[in-house]
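We emphasize that the prediction below concerns an isolated chain of 88 residues; any contacts that depend on oligomerization or on bound cofactors are therefore not represented. The input was used exactly as deposited, without trimming of termini.
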Amino acid sequence: MSVEKIKAFLAENPKFVEILKRAVEHEEAHSKEEHYLGWEWSDVRAYPAELMKLVREGIVNIKYKSRRYTHYVLADREAVKKSLGLKR
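Result of the prediction step, given as a token string:
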């Protein structure tokens, strides 16, 4: 997803700004892990329904799913960082 589309989505849905910031922080904190599965809803303090909206928009992907767990990753971390105005 392009930076412009992410910015437009966040302009319409500002509650997702903090969720995406926490997702970026979590992914960068764990980026060196060899078997990183992603983050869960509790890691970014968001309801699963909110995360499904991000999945439908193409901003977030589901990396791992089982009966008990769902792990998410950003589809394009750099694009999300740029749209949030975060430094590289």
